[in-house]
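Write out a record, fold above all:
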Amino acid sequence: MKLCKHLDYDIESYPTCKLITIRKPTFDIEVRYWERQISKHELDLFPNTAIKVQFCKLKGRIKGIFQCYNENELSCHEVKDD
């Protein structure tokens, strides 16, 4: 898994979201994603709303966590240089 350089982790840009970092033995890197803070009322109205998301500088909100870490899932993926 390789982090995409287009991911946006600017906390001030997403005040209704919480930035989460996870590290599991199966990952070779820390994985960060956004957890959207959505009310029960919103979830009742829109039950398929993604809670765990990524924000991309090119595409906006991505409904998932790992598409921006897996090199072949999105055509816009570019590996971030460390």
Notes: Residues 11-68 form one domain. The mean pLDDT is 90. The longest helix spans residues 40-45.
